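Our preliminary data section would be incomplete without showing what the modeling component actually yields. Below, a chain of 67 amino acids is followed by its predicted structure, encoded as tokens that our downstream tools consume directly.
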Amino acid sequence: MTEDFSPEIVAFCCHYCAYAAADLAGSLRLEYPPSIKIIKLPCSGKYDPIYALKAFEEGADGVMVAG
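Predicted structure:
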């Protein structure tokens, strides 16, 4: 394992909670790693585990669901 490894993370975020927080962080010019990809969901209750399987299939190293 190399020291410059940066895991690709897919974050499924609720529109009203976690996505709003990520949007606010962007507005405040706060930075987070570019290897984190945020996917907005209408609600975390709409999350389906098939989304995680698809993310891993497409090369993600990790998946996060935030509500």
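Residues 9-60 form one domain. The radius of gyration is 13 Å. Preliminary results of this kind motivate Aim 1 of the renewal.
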